[in-house]
Amino acid sequence: MITSKRPRWERAAMRREEILSAGLRLFSERGYHATSIRTIARTAGITEGLIYHYFDSKEDLLMTIVERSNIKNNIETLEIPDSLPIHEALRLIGYSFFERLSRSKEVFRLMIGESYLFEKEGKLFFPKMIYENGMKGMGKFLRKRMDAGELKRRDPVLAARQFMGSLVSFFIFQEILSGKRVVNVEPGKFLNLSIKIFLEGMSKA
Known about the structure:
- By secondary structure, the chain is mostly helical.
- The chain has helices spanning 8-30, 37-44, 48-54, 58-68, 86-103, 105-120, 125-147, 156-176, 187-202.
């Protein structure tokens, strides 16, 4: 609860967090397009006008939720040493990716559920974000390993899409579509098989 005894900057930060929390919950439950700023304001216990003090628009609120969710798979943040064998590096990347998706499952579900509506409106920030922060980063990592002679020379971004795409598909089936209730596969087991198949086609050894 926000009280007047707190410093002004702290109250503002807490208010912003309340708006983000209410926005994520409502977007996930009702969908982005079916959720109004008025509803978010009522849930957060504030006026509509106050939301616009923190965010330019509902779209800005959504993008802030996605940006802060840490769903983006930024390979550079892992600081993988060049000496780490490729299969171990891929395992580290895979486990990190699954962990990020698990922590941000609500956001991921929201992105999938609303993506077609944004596409109709010509707003492609979800695929652009995934490409810029996921595929290109992974492609840069693979290109570096290709230059080192560990992997065959292939299009690194396409190779990144092939590897990471299998992990995304697994997560969607298991967690978003509740596929684990039908057949529960341990993520580590799937990841190890994905790495094995990937390296059979890409490894020089």
